[in-house]
Amino acid sequence: MSAHADSYDWSVVLNKIVSNYRAMSLPVKAGLWFTLCEIIQRGLSVISMPIFTRLFSIDEYGSYSLYVTWVMLFGLVITLNIQQEVFNKGMSDHEYERPDYSTSQAVLITTLIVMFYLLYLLLQFPINAFTGMGTLLTSLMFIDIWTSAIVTLWLTRRRFEYAYKPLLTVTLGISIVSIAIGIVAVQLAPSGYKVLARVVSNLAPYLAATVVVMIDFLKHSQHCFDRDWWSASVKMGVPLTPHYASQVLLNQADKVLISWFLDNVKVAIYGVAHSAGLLLVMVSNGINSSLVPWLYSKLKSGDCRSIAGVTNAAALLVAVLVFILMLLAPECVAVLATGDYAEAIWCIPPIATGVVFTFLYTLFVNVEIYYGKAGYVATASVLSAVLNIVLNVIAIPLFGYIASAYVTAVCYMGTAMLHYLFMKKTLKSKGVGFRIYDARFLCFIGALTCLFAAISLVLYTLGPVRYAFVMALLFCIFACRNRLRSQFKSIRSKG
After folding, report:
1. pLDDT confidence of 26, banded at 50, 70, 90?
2. How many Å apart are CA 291 and CA 299, to the nearest integer?
3. How far is CA 39 from the centre of its chain?
4. Dist. CA 207–CA 197, nearest whole Å
């Protein structure tokens, strides 16, 4: 009788979940899967990290972290980051020409890759000396940049079409294959070739996916070149490139500077802390990516009443995840790496704080880009990046690599404030009289994050108290579950 009752109760709950899922609108359903996909993808990356930190020596892991940094920096300049906001805007503006537009942008990116690689061949010796990489690794970097950009184009188009099933298949397939091949390749590679083995193993599934994607683009389009579209993409991409480069510099330049002033061992330790925050960065990026099509549609229609509620809930979700990471930093580092990386815990609170402020300023950047204010976006980002580099150059030699995490967090705060002011100026210049975001609530989230970061640092030396604090936080979340559930139901209905 009791067993039957329990079975019945579970079936009722399951049926209710399925019913609620089926009742979701396609945009909401797609947004849910996009976010979950991002979480799973980055979760696999974090899960595999303990394996790679143990297969690599600490110096090799530092070298691989630097390679990833150079891929990000060079990728932004080479592709003009057309596969991101430029392509998002194109998907919105050319709704009925998406197949042709997608193919045109893929060919444009391929052309840029070839042009910059030919330029690299002419200047390879000074470039190799600057990056510390050889010609082979740099050549693989160009292929890495190309494949990542093309796959991103395809995935972005799927987002705008709310086609979450093929997106899930491709994204998770690439991640799983890359990790599986990588583990085998690094383990079998002789000493001195493990970094190369990991680069090639990560590149292989992306290259295979790129070939399939390019065939798909060409098959479903009438033409692959449009002068007006290329011109518009370049005109928008060039002024935005400093912004994107500044974002990467804010997030990655510290590794390069630590390598220059200290050594790759410190880069590796800092990289572990950075990777601990990577999952949350990608979760917040996934949330933002899911919000962008919905946000653009709301701005286009002028129906902006629901935007503040949705973004408040999204910011709160990101902040709660960040708080949990801060409090559990010692356990995270212990899982991710060996005892050689234990110092990384002191970098996690400021790095995690930066995640929240990154999400906040991205909300403001979305509005600036929608209204075509790329100059504002670039100005704020460049100023913050320059400040980040200057402060890191001063702080790292004086206080060590841990100071770099705090410098970066402060710069993210400044970036958020600058972008907020530029967003307000943008709305005023466009004659937009309605309030898009709840500035007071977003400020509260930022201040609360800084407070939690300070508390976490104190609690690292007080194990039992820290665990009690974690339990208290979880209890508060549990106690407020009904209120949170009702708020997200409201958001779903608005979506």
Report:
1. low
2. 12
3. 11
4. 15
**What is the rounded distance in angstroms from the CA atom of residue 66 to the CA atom of residue 462?**
34
**3-state secondary structure at position 65:** helix
CA dihedral 13, 19, 23, 27 (to 10 degrees): 70
Instruction: With CA atoms as reference, report the closest residue to 36 among 229, 171, 213.
Output: 171
Structure tokens, 28: 């909401």
Torsion 351-355-356-360 (CA) sign? positive
Using the predicted structure, report yes or no on whether residue 145 has a pLDDT greater than 90.
yes
Which structure tokens are listed for 231? 């011109």
Look at 326-340, 393-407, 479-493 and tell me which has the smallest mean pLDDT.
479-493
Q: Which two tokens stand for residue 385?
A: 């990046």
Could you give the CA distance from residue 427 to residue 414 in angstroms, rounded to a whole number? 20
Q: Environment class of residue 116 by beta-carbon count within 10 Å: exposed (0-12), middle (13-18) or buried (19+)?
A: middle
DSSP 85: I
Q: Which amino acid would we find at residue 127?
A: I
Going by C-alpha positions, the residue among 53, 123, 27, 20 that lies closest to residue 337 is 53
Which residue's structure tokens are 């503040």?
308
Q: 374 with 231: CB under 8 angstroms?
A: no
DSSP string, 8-28: HHHHHHHHHHHHHHHHS-HHH
% of the chain residues with pLDDT over 70 = 87
Please state, in angstroms and rounded to a whole number, the distance separating the CA atoms of residues 159 and 75: 22
Q: Specify the residue for token string 């394996």.
A: 51
Q: Which residues contact 354 (CB under 8 A, 6 or more apart)?
A: 251, 277, 408, 409, 412
What's the distance, Cα to Cα, between the start and end of the chain in Å? 42
Q: Is the pLDDT of residue 197 over 90?
A: yes
Rounded to 5°, angle at Cα 308 from 304 and 309: 115
Contact 273, 348 (CB under 8 A): yes
pTM of the complete model: 0.69
State the Cα–Cα distance between residues 56 and 252, nearest whole angstrom: 21
**Res 490 pLDDT > 50:** no
Pair 373, 422: CB distance under 8 Å: yes
Most confident of 85-99, 294-308, 320-334, 466-480: 320-334
- Tell me the longest C-alpha to C-alpha distance in the chain: 80
Closest listed residue to residue 427, CA positions, set 382, 364, 381, 379 = 364
**pLDDT at residue 343 above 60?**
yes
Nearest Cα residue to 277 out of 233, 202, 329: 329
* Gap between the Cα atoms of 33 and 39, Å rounded: 10
Q: How far apart are CA 140 and CA 333, in angstroms?
A: 30
Compute the C-alpha angle 458/314/301, nearest 5°: 155
Most confident of 213-217, 281-285, 355-359, 382-386: 355-359
Question: Is residue 64 within 8 Å of 56, Cβ to Cβ?
Answer: yes
